[in-house]
C-alpha cells in the first residue's frame, strides 16, 4: 500500500517554514503499514494543484494533502479540488455550525468571509475538525482516496488521527503492523547501537524490524512486525522488548508516546510527591515541560528562574562568596539552587540547572555546554556535571531532559522500585 | 526563472528526519530571484529518481538534487544520473586526490569502496566539495541545469554557495524577487483581512502579492514582487508597507525573521532596562522564550513560576486574603504577581500571567482560556483580561505572546516613541 503526501502553500517553497507536517504524517502512515512513495510540496495555485494530482503514481492508493484551506484569499485549494474532481458545491450545516460556534465562544462577530468555510465540494465527505474552522475533506477517484486537511499542524494532526485514520482502516485493506517504541535518554545513537548490537542481530529470525529515531538528547527505538498471520506478533514483540530492557535500563524511561515530563508527572502523582525547580541556563524550559502536562498543578509548586548572580542570592539564598569564588556554573551553586528552591516552596524534590548555554560565555575551564544539574531529595542533595555541546537550543533541551531523567531515578530510588519495574507503572 | 528541488532518500519518507535542506535551499534560491516550482522528496531507487526527472515541469530551468551520494550501497543516485543523462564514466583526478586526502588527514587507510567516489558521469562538470568526499555534479540537458549534491547539510550548503551559485549566476538570467514580511500579534487571520481589505485590493496594480502566514497567536503578512524591470521593486514594496503599518499598528511588532522575544530583547538592550517575570498559567514558557535569545542575560534577571497559592504568597508576597476572596485568576493577583517579582528582582519592568490553561479547571465564571496578564513598569502596575480559547498548548503560547506584546508597548511608551517608529529600531 503506497501513499503520497502533497503539501500546498508558498511558505514552504520560499523556505519560510520547514515542512514538519510531512515528517509527522510519514511517521503515522508508516505505523499503519503504509509506505510513502513521495512527498510533493507545491504552490498555492490551481495549476500547481491540478498538475500534482494529474501525476499521482498509478500504484498510489492514498493521497494526503495539507495546506491551503483557510478563509483568506491566498487559499484556493478547495476550489482547485472541486474543479479537479468535477464537483459542484454544497454548504455543510455541521461545518457552518462549527464555524459560528468558533466565533461565538470567543465573543467575536463572525466575519462574512468565514461562511465560505462551510462551502465544500459536493463530491467530498467532510472530516470533522473540532479544533478549527477549516474542515477536512475525503474524495475518491479511480480507486484512490484523496484527503485534504488544513496546514495548521495541530488541526491537521487532529483531523488525521481522529477522523481520517478510522476511515482509512475501513476503506483500505491494511496490513496489521505492530509497533513498540522504547524511549531512551542520555545516550547517543551509535553508543546505543554498540550496546544492543547482538540483540539487534537476533531480530531477523522473527522478521522484527528496528528503527533508531534520534532527536536532541533522546533516541527512540521502534520495533515493528508485520502481523498478517495474526496472533504471534504481540508475543514476539513483547519477548524482544523484555530482552532489550535490561541492556538499556540506565537510559530507558518509557514507551510509545510518553515523554520524560509525563513519566515524571506520573511518578510524582502516584507517590504523592511535590516538585520545585531552580533554573539558570535552561531559563524556564524545564518548568515549561513540566507544566505542559495537564494536571501538573497537583505536584508542581513552582520554580525560580535565576539568570543573574543577584537573582540567585535574592531568590534562592545562594552564597555570594561561592558565586565569587567558584562561579555560578559549579557544583556548589547547583546544589544550593536545588536546596534553596526546595526550601522556598517546601517540596519533596527539587532540581536545578546552571551552565553555559552559549554561544557566548565559554572559558577554557568551562567551555560552552558545561552544565551542572543539582538534585535535592528528602534525604540528600547532590550535583552532577555534563558536557552538552555547543548549540544553545540543543543545550537547553538536552539539559532539561537530563535533569528530568535524574529526578526520575531519584523518585524511583526513594520508593524502592527498580528501573525496569518503574517502566511498567501506569 | 523556476527551479525544482528533489531530495533523495528514505529517511525523509519514513519521517525519520525533517527535510531542512529544502527550506534552506528555497530561501537561498528566493534571494537569488529564483522561485521554486515544487519540492519533491523521493526514495533512493533508480526508478524513483528517473521518475522524478522525467516529470520535471517544462518551465523549470534549474533542478537541485540533494542526497544519495555517499559511498554505501543504498546510495545509487550517481548511477541513476549517469543512465538518465545517457553518460559514460570518468575518474576525476581532483576528486580522487580529495578523497585520498580526506582519509590521510584522519590517519585512516582509504577503504577501496571510496575510490568509487571519484568515478563520475562523463557528461557532468564536478562541483568541488572541500568539506567531504562526495562531489557535487552539474549536468545540462534541454536548456535545463541539473545539480546533484550530497545530503549532509553542511556539505550541501558549502557546495551550493561556493561552487554552484557562481555558475548559476553566470549561466542563467535571473529575475529579482523581493519579499518583505510584516509580523503581527493579537489578531486573527480573518479579522486582519477585514482591516486591510481595501489596502490588499490595491496591491494588484503593481503586481504585489500578499500571503497570510498564521501560527497560534501570530500572523505574518508577506509581500512579494517580481522586480524584473529592476529598481522600482524595493520602492513599491516600501511604499506598500508604509501604507499598511498605520492600519495594523496595534498588532505589528516587527519584520522578516524577528520574534516578539527578539524585539523585546532589542528594546530592553537599547534602553538599558531590566526584566523579571512571574508566571502561573504559562508555567515558565515566557521565561523560556526570553532566554532562548542569546545575550538575554544582560536584561533578564529572573522569574518566579508560582503554580500554587502557597508559592504565590511565599515567593511573590501575593495577598492570601485576595487569593481566598477573588481567586488566583484575577486582576488583583495578576497585579500583585507583577509587582512582587519586579520587587524581588529589582527590575525596571515585570510581566505576569495567571489563568486557566485547561483542559480542566474551568468554571462558569472563569472558563478555560480565561487569562489575566499583569504589567509592572517604573510608573504603574495594571492587568488586562483575555480569552485564549480552550487548548492548553495554544493557550500557553498565545498568553506568552500577548504578555510580550504588552511589555513591548509599555517599553515604547516609557521611552516616548510611537508604535510605528519602534518598528524601525535597529
Tell me what you see in this structure.
With about 425 residues, chain A is α/β, with parallel strands linked by helices. The first copy, chain A, has 3 domains: about 1-170, 3-Layer(aba) Sandwich (Molybdenum Cofactor Biosythetic Enzyme, Chain A), CATH 3.40.980.10; about 175-255, Ribosomal protein S10 (Alpha-Beta Plaits), CATH 3.30.70.600; about 260-425, Alpha-Beta Complex (Maf protein). Helices cover about 40% and strands about 25% of the residues of chain A. Chain A is built from 15 helices and 17 strands. Chain A has helices at about 10-15, 20-30, 45-55, 75-85, 95-105, 155-170, 190-200, 230-245, 260-270, 285-290, 310-315, 320-325, 330-345, 390-415, 420-425, and strands at about 1-10, 35-40, 60-65, 90, 120, 125, 135-140, 145-150, 175-185, 210-215, 220-225, 250-255, 275-280, 300-305, 350-355, 370-375, 380-385. The first copy, chain A, has a 6-stranded mixed sheet with strand order 2-1-3-8-7-6, sandwiched between helices. In chain A, strands 14-13-15-16-17 form a 5-stranded mixed sheet, sandwiched between helices. In chain A, β16 and β17 form a beta hairpin. The first copy, chain A, starts with a strand and ends with a helix. Chains A and B meet through α1, α2, β2, α3 and α10 of A and α2, β2, α3, α7 and β10 of B.
Amino acid at each position: 500500500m503506497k501513499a503520497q503526501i502533497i503539501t500546498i502553500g508558498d511558505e514552504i517553497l520560499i523556505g519560510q517554514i520547514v515542512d514538519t507536517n510531512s515528517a509527522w504524517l510519514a511517521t503515522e502512515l508508516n505505523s499503519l503499514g503504509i509506505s510513502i512513495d513521495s512527498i510533493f510540496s507545491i504552490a498555492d495555485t490551481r495549476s500547481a494543484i491540478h498538475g500534482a494530482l494529474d501525476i499521482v503514481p498509478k500504484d498510489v492508493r492514498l493521497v494526503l494533502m495539507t495546506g491551503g484551506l483557510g478563509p483568506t484569499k491566498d487559499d484556493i485549494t478547495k476550489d482547485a479540488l472541486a474543479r479537479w474532481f468535477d464537483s459542484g458545491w454544497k454548504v455543510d450545516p455541521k461545518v457552518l455550525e462549527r464555524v459560528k460556534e468558533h466565533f461565538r465562544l470567543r465573543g467575536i462577530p463572525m466575519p462574512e468571509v468565514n461562511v465560505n468555510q462551510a462551502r465544500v465540494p459536493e463530491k467530498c465527505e467532510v472530516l470533522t475538525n473540532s479544533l478549527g474552522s477549516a474542515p477536512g475533506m475525503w474524495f475518491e477517484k479511480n480507486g484512490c482516496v484523496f484527503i485534504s486537511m488544513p496546514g495548521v499542524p495541530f488541526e491537521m494532526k487532529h483531523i488525521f488521527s481522529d477522523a481520517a485514520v478510522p476511515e482509512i482502516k475501513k476503506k483500505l485493506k491494511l496490513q496489521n503492523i505492530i509497533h513498540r517504541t522504547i524511549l531512551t535518554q542520555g545516550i547517543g545513537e551509535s553508543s546505543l547501537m554498540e550496546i544492543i548490537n547482538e540483540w539487534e542481530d537476533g531480530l531477523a529470525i522473527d522478521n522484527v524490524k528496528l528503527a533508531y529515531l534520534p532527536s536532541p538528547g533522546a533516541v527512540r527505538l521502534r520495533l515493528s512486525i508485520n502481523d498478517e498471520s495474526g496472533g504471534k506478533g504481540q508475543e514476539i514483540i513483547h519477548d524482544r522488548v523484555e530482552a532489550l530492557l535490561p541492556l538499556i535500563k540506565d537510559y530507558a524511561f518509557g514507551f510509545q508516546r510518553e515523554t520524560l515530563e509525563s513519566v515524571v508527572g506520573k511518578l510524582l502523582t502516584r507517590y504523592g510527591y511535590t516538585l520545585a525547580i531552580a533554573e539558570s541556563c535552561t531559563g524556564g524550559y524545564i518548568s515549561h515541560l513540566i507544566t505542559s502536562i495537564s494536571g501538573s498543578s497537583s505536584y508542581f509548586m513552582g520554580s525560580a528562574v535565576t539568570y543573574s548572580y543577584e537573582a540567585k542570592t535574592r531568590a534562592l539564598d545562594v552564597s555570594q562568596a561561592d558565586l565569587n569564588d567558584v562561579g555560578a556554573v559549579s557544583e556548589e551553586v547547583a546544589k544550593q539552587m536545588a536546596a534553596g528552591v526546595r526550601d522556598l516552596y517546601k517540596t519533596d524534590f527539587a532540581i536545578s540547572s546552571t551552565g553555559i548555554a552559549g554561544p557566548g560565555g565559554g572559558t577554557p575551564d568551562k567551555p560552552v555546554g558545561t552544565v551542572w544539574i543539582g538534585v535535592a531529595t528528602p534525604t540528600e542533595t547532590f550535583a552532577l556535571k555534563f558536557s552538552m555541546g555547543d548549540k544553545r537550543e540543543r543545550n537547553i533541551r538536552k539539559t532539561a531532559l537530563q535533569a528530568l531523567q535524574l529526578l526520575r531515578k531519584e523518585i524511583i530510588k526513594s520508593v524502592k522500585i527498580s528501573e525496569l519495574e518503574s517502566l511498567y507503572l501506569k
